[in-house]
Amino acid sequence: MTRSYECNLDSQRLSIEYTDYALEKIREITRIYSVPIEDYICHMPIPSRRYYVRVNLLRSSSDYVIGLLRKEGYVFLKDGRIEEAIYTFVEGPYHLDKKPEKYVVVDKYTAESVLLGANVYAPGVLKVHGSVGDEVAIMDSKGAVFGYGRLVNNPLKTGEKTGLAVVTERSLFKTPKLRETSVFTDGYIFDQSLPSMMVARSLEPSQGDIVIDLTASPGGKITHAYELSGGKALVIGIDRSLKKVERIVKNAQRLGHNIYTLVYDSRKIHEYLPTLRANKIIVDPPCSDLGRRPKTSLLLTKESLKNLVALQRSILKVASKIALPGSLIVYSTCTLTFEENEGNAEWAIRELGLVPEEPPIPLPQTTLSEYPFSRFTPYVMDTPGFFIALLRKKG
C-alpha cells in the first residue's frame, strides 16, 4: 500500500510517497542511529550540501579545472580526500513565490532533477498546459511544484523524443548546469557523487590490470577505473541493452577514454564468453535506490526486494566465476536495506568463499556487520546512501 507524508521545505510542501514495507526497512536503519523516521523521510528530498564532480585526471589537474569552472562563473573547491573530487555548495532552499497559470507535468525522476535546478527534457514530459514562450510551473503528477521556467518546446505536440522542453529559471535548490559548459563537453569532468568515486578507488587499478564492470552504464565507475590506471589498464564495460552500452560509449568518448564495451546480460556472461577473466571486477547492480538524494518517493515491496536480492546475488556469483585467483571484487549499491548491502556481502563470503578486505582508503564503516564494509548513511552523513564491500577471491 502506498501512503504519503507531507514535508515542509521553506514553506513549500512536498508529498513524499512511501510503502509500508519501505518504511519498515528504513526504520531498521534509523533505529540504529537513533534518528526519528519522520525526520529521515523529510531529509530525503533535500540534496547533499555539497555537489560533487570528478575531474578527469588524464586530461588535466583539479586546480586547472577549478580555474576553468571559475571562468564559467562557478566556484568549486578541492575535497582533499581524493585528488579528483571537487565540489561546490548547493544553494537553497528557495521559496517558490510565483504561481504561473500554465504548467508542465513531468515524471518523478525529472521532478527530482528540477528540484536541483536542472532543465526539463522531452523524455520526462507527461503533460503540457501552455504554449511555447509561456512561463510555466514544473510539477509532478500530484501537483507538487518543483520549480518554474520557460516552455521552449512542446514535445507532446511536435513528437520529438529528445531535446530541451523547459528552461528552468527557479527551483527549490540550485546546482550548476555544468552539462552546458565547455568544461563538461570537452571531457574535463564527470558528474559523480563522492561515495560513488570510492568504488573504483577501492580497486586501485594500475597498469596491466583487466577491469570489468558487469553493470557499467552510464560509465562513471569504469571510466574512473581507466583514469586511475593512467589509461594503462584494459577496461571493459558490460550492460544488458544496446541503449545502456551506448551511454557508456558516449561518456567514454567525451572523456577521451579507450574503453571496450559488450552488450550482454551479465548473469550469463560466463556462458556467452567462457574464457572471459579479470583481476578487478566492479559489481554495482540494480538496487532499490533508497539512498539517492534528492528523492521524493520511497517505494519498495517485499516481493521487489526479494527479486532484487536474487538478481544482485546472481551477478556476484558470476563475478566470482570470472575472477582470477587472488582477484578483487568491489560490490556497491546506492540503497539502504541490510539485505541488499551487508546481507549480500556476507552471503558472498559464506556461499562463494570470497574474503573481506579492508578498503585501501578511509571509509565510514558499517555498524551492521563485523566485516570491514562501508556504509554512507543520509541524515547521519551529508551524503547519498551508499554501500561498498571489497572482497577477494582466494588463490
Verbal overview:
With about 400 residues, the protein is an alpha/beta fold. It has 3 domains: about 50-90, no CATH class; about 100-170, Archaeosine Trna-guanine Transglycosylase, Chain: A, domain 4 (Roll), CATH 2.30.130.10; about 195-390, Vaccinia Virus protein VP39 (Rossmann fold, 3-Layer(aba) Sandwich), CATH 3.40.50. About 30% of the residues lie in helices and about 30% in strands. The chain is built from 12 helices and 21 strands. The chain has helices spanning about 20-30, 35-45, 60-70, 110-115, 155-160, 180-185, 195-205, 220-230, 240-255, 270, 300-320, 340-350, and strands at about 1-10, 10-20, 50-55, 75-80, 85-90, 100-105, 120, 125-130, 135-140, 145-150, 165-170, 190, 210-215, 235-240, 260-265, 280-285, 295-300, 325-335, 355, 375, 385-390.
Question: What is the topological layout?
Answer:
Elements: E1 2-9, E2 12-19, H1 20-32, H2 37-43, E3 50-55, H3 62-71, E4 77-78, E5 85-89, E6 102-106, H4 108-114, E7 120-121, E8 125-129, E9 135-139, E10 145-151, H5 155-158, E11 164-171, H6 182-185, E12 189-191, H7 194-203, E13 210-213, H8 220-228, E14 234-239, H9 242-255, E15 260-263, H10 269-272, E16 278-283, E17 297-298, H11 302-322, E18 323-333, H12 342-352, E19 355-356, E20 374-376, E21 386-392
Parallel strand pairs: 2-17, 6-9, 13-14, 13-16, 14-15, 16-18
Antiparallel strand pairs: 1-2, 3-5, 3-12, 4-5, 6-8, 7-11, 9-10, 10-11, 18-21, 19-21, 20-21
Helix pairs in contact: 7-8, 11-12
